[in-house]
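ugh ok fine here u go
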Amino acid sequence: MASSHCSIALLCFLVFCFIVAYTVSSTSLYYDEQESLYQVLDSINSGIDWRSLFPDDLCNSAPHGIVCDYFSDENGTITPHITELNFGYVSDFSPNPPCTFNSMFSPRLSSFIYLRKLFFYRCFTETQVSFPGFLSTLGSTLEELVFIENPSMVGTLTGKLGNFRHLRRFILTGTNVSGEIPDDIGGLLELEQVTISRNRINGVVPQSLGNLKKLKILDLSYNGLEGNLTESIGKMTELLKLDLCSNRFKGRIPESLVGLQKLEFLDLSYNRFANFGIPLFLAEMTNMRELYLSGNSLGGQIPEIWEKLEGMLGLGLSRLDLVGEIPASMGVVLRNICYLGLDHNKLEGTVPEEFGFLESLHEMNLENNKLSGRLPFSAKFSARIGGKLKLAGNPNLCIDEEHSSAQDSSGLGYLKFCNKPNKPDAVLFSISGCSSPVQSSLFLILLLLFLTFLFIE
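structure:
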């Protein structure tokens, strides 16, 4: 009996020793990360006493946005490590630690050896922070690097991304980071999203981007990128979204884009592509849902390329110097279209009758063309779309009088009513196609007298 009690006591002692050993090991390995995290929290918001609010192990009790995971070493020792740092209040559903107008960032990032995600939302808005300044000490474990609306962030991208071999998402929007997109970005083969928009990036798009075979989203919009768009962009065959709008690209829209057979969203609007017309190869990109080419001097007519694009939801062909008539096939095929922009061109002729049956349409802009004739839209159609049916700048367009009751509510008050077609007066019969009304009346009188005479007889 005594032996049994001794065995139980020994087992309890060993369990206690294991717990103590685990706790000591965990604390000693995690201490540097915890201290660095306090430094980070103080640098983004020094007005909060983070150590008093979260005095214990930050992996057990931490602000929202601080994420930990547990890892086992070669000896089987399990320790916690910080894997995500998310800063900047986004919403009540993701209340990350809020940043202040004078947020800084100068911690020892080298302590976060297991870090997978680094996220900043509106943290650097007044005090200038250098973009590369705090990345050089990060390890290769990083998978997501996200900076959104940080206008006081400056610096360049050159030579700062090459170490992140496991990076899947890189988002940099709304900053003052400048310079060129580094060529070594093409070596980050795990990338699935690259969003570098609304910055001061210039130069050309590196040919190495074509190496990113896993990329699904490429957004380089609202920068100062220029030159011809590299043909290698057509090699990213997994691409779902390509947004290059509001840059300074010139020349021809590369035909290699036809290789992007999974592409659903393409925006090349407001660049300097010129004189080659709307690309015919778009007819082969059958997964396209949104296409925006507005603001380029492409010229030419609207081609008959819509047969296989019945899934199109949004189409922007404004300010392209287009001429000729609007193809009726657009109204036949694009039955799912929600937005259609053809304004500020030189289109002429009538609005196709088929457009009157686009029941999914929520907005259509045909302003400032040379369109004429009777509109094919019913009063119900016009009232449903309301002010989003834009037709101004086409003085020869007209509407039927049936629209008069809904003219103001539909926003078509500036259009004139169409003239009624002339209809000949109805007659019972005539002697010839040239008979006058007097001749017809005389004939009727003589006929009646003749019938009366026969009846008397």
